[in-house]
Structure formats: structure tokens, C-alpha cells
Amino acid sequence: MPIYYPDILDQKTAARTFTYGDKDVMLYALGVGLGADPMDEKELAFVYERGLKVVPTAATVLAAGGGGGRAARGAAEGPALPAGHRPSQINFLMVVHGEQKVELHKPLPTTGTFTAEGRTVGAYDKGKDKGAVIVNETVWTDEKGEKVATLTGSTFARGDGGFGGPSEGAPEPHAAPTRAPDLSVDIATREDQALLYRLNGDRNPLHSDPDVAKRAGFPRPILHGLCTYGITCRAVLQAITDYDADQILSHQARFSAPVFPGDVITVDLWKDGKNISFEARVKARNATVIKNGLTVLR
Fold first, then answer.
1. pLDDT score recorded for residue 249
2. Which domains are assigned to the chain?
3. In the prediction, which pLDDT does 64 show?
4. What's the Cα-to-Cα distance from 59 to each of 94, 109, 163, 275, rounded to whole Å?
């Protein structure tokens, strides 16, 4: 089924209510490598229920149907669509996660029940043989109806170009400063990092099955992009906020290359007031794995 424009801009997901608890919060923190040193009290605060803190980027998994977050009740009926609406469907076999942003309207609690609703907010046509960029937004509200989080993600649909939508107008990625980084943080990933992180809900065998990884052109299973994204947030917590998660208003980045479990990730950071720019690279392979990163502090 192709992309129909502008009909795709009316597409929404049904409202879904979910609950997560402290176990889900701690599992995510372990999945991005926090708590590797159980004597480090600042990191222990993210993986131990006494005085538990929530990594801001945990919002990317806590609403998942399995692993990170549990459905509290059945999804509501989908929203009514205009008469004659043509539903769009991209080719998920040729999809690449392009960018991710988490904006927290209030700090995440360690447990709670929320409702998530998603919609398509942009569709950009790069050409018949060049693919399409689809931008989706998911908004969490709490039981009072107040906004808690807005998650915005872009998908590069390699097989869906040529649908007749606009070619320009997609949000411009944040540009890192041209000066040398103000500081850099090295974070080692574990050989089994992807096997742990997948328990948050994303069980794509690309991250666990050597045969599937080889068929996809990789020598071994790769780390989840959202795990790398969470590790960059961990770097900001460590280097900028002294592990105060409540300081982070938003965290966004663009994925540029895969990470292999066991890689050491170097996160370069630039501090300009409340704006923290960042990029991440694996020096051993001369690979930049995250670009155009921006954390905004409260």
C-alpha cells in the first residue's frame, strides 16, 4: 500500500493507556549501561528503588506493549477520518530510524498510568528512487489530562519515494558548533548490551541473532539505535547535570551509523547556556554514530 498525500497527515493512532513501574525504569537504565559499578552511588540511583531516578530518554520505551510498560486497558477506537480518506502504509522492510526527540513537559515519575496518542505530522518526498521522510509524533497525557511527554521521530522510508508530496520543508537538523568540543565522555558498551536492552520491548532479531545480522549485511548483531540514543543522554547526565535528570527538558539526535555491542562510544559535548550540543563516535572504527544532537536544559 503506497503513501497517499495529503491524506497521510490525517492519520492517527488510537489512544492507548499504559502503566509502567519502577522495574521498567530500572531495566531501561541497566539497558543503557547505568549501574555497571554498583558502588557508584550516583548511577545506583537509576537502578535501585531507594530514591529512584528516571533517565529522561526512557520515555522511548516505557509505553511499549511489552517489556517497558504494560497496557492498562484496551485501546480506544481510532479517531474518525475524513470521508474518502486513503490510508497510507510504508514498506517497513526498507525503513531506517532517522531522528528521535523526547521533550518532557514535566519530569517523568518512577511509576504511573498515562495515555499515548500518535499522529503523522509530516511526509516529505525525496524522489521515486530516493525514498521518503515520515515524521510522527506521540503525546503522553497523565490521568489529569495534562501533557507529560512529546516524542517526535522521523523515519526514512527508502522504498516509498515518488508519492507526490513536498520535497522541502522537513525540520532542519541541529548544527553542532564548529569549535572543538568543550568536553568528551568515553562510555564502554558491554558485549551483551543489546541482549539486555531488547528486554525493554524491541526484540528485532537484528540485535540478537547472528544469522539475521549477517543476512542484513552486518558481521554481528548491532546495538539498538535507541540504546545509543539513551547512552548519549547518559553522557549528558554524567558530564553536565551531575546526574540530575530533572534538569533535562528535551533530548534529540540523528542516527548516522550502527554501534556494535562492545564498542566504546565517545560523546563530544558543547555547552552554550542551556543548550548542550553533542555528537557520538566510535574512535576504533572512525565512525560517527550520532549527529546533530541537542539537549535543552530547564
1. 98
2. 7-21+69-157 (3.10.129.10), 183-297 (3.10.129.10)
3. 80
4. 25, 11, 32, 20
* Sheet containing strand 132-141, strands side by side: 70-71, 16-20, 112-125, 132-141, 147-157, 95-104, 248-255, 287-297, 275-282, 264-272, 183-188
The cell for 34 is 547505568
pLDDT at 76: 42
105 a catalytic residue? no
The ranges of the chain with pLDDT < 50 are 65-68, 71-77
Query: And the C-alpha cell for 74?
Result: 484496551
pLDDT of residue 81: 75
Q: Which helix (H) or strand (E) element contains residue 229?
A: helix 225-239
Residue 70 is predicted with a pLDDT of: 55
pLDDT, tens digit (0-9, with 9 covering 90-100), for 109-135: 999 999 999 999 999 999 998 999 999
Catalytic hit among 24, 125, 160, 202: 202
What is the 8-class DSSP label of residue 173?
A: P
Q: What number of residues does the chain have?
A: 298
Residue 8 cell numbers, joined: 497521510
* Active-site option among 207, 224, 251, 268: 207
Asked if residue 107 has a cis previous peptide bond (ω within 30° of 0), the answer is no
Q: How far apart are CA 268 and CA 258, in angstroms?
A: 17
Q: Would residue 85 show up in a list of annotated catalytic residues for this protein? A: no
- Please answer whether residues 114 and 17 qualify as being in contact, where contact means their C-beta atoms are separated by less than 8 angstroms: yes
